[in-house]
Amino acid sequence: MTGTLFGLTFLVAAPFWALMILLPRWRWTERIIGSPAIVLPVLVIYAILVIPALPDLLPVVTQPTLEGLREAPGTANGAAAAWAHMIAFDLFVGRWIWQDGNDRKIGHWRIAPTLVLTILFGPLGLAVHLLDRRIG
Predict the structure, then answer these.
(1) Global pTM?
(2) Is the CA virtual torsion 33, 26, 104, 85 positive or negative?
């Protein structure tokens, strides 16, 4: 089941990325991406992976150590949960970048590459957008 959930994680997020990157001006894109609920499918996957492991994970996150954080994703379930965590937050941040870029009238030719960077390396995409919005 863990492998299936891992495989589904990006698949359920990909349509939302496609709307923001490939169909930014389609009237349904704004309606769909306007809702923060777009992250719910990934959050459900995350919950399925994490809730059963809470007794093992709570000590890791409440008293983090480098060793503990290194070992937690060292299992299939841990890696799949970490992946879902990243995908959920990257999608939420990507949604914000897309909306903020539209609100600030930043050209899509600048937003689209930032969204791709966010998919691949979330915090770097956010950093680029924060710099880009200062440029205007």
Answers:
(1) 0.92
(2) positive
Q: Give pLDDT tens digits for 72-81.
A: 878 888 899 9
The residues spanned by each domain of the chain are 2-135
Concatenating the DSSP letter of every residue in the chain gives -HHHHHHHHHHHHHHHHHHHHH-TTSHHHHHHHT-GGGGHHHHHHHHHHHGGGHHHHHHHHHS--HHHHHHGGGSHHHHHHHHHHHHHHHHHHHHHHHHHHHHTT--HHHHHHHHHHHHHHHHHHHHHHHHHHHH-
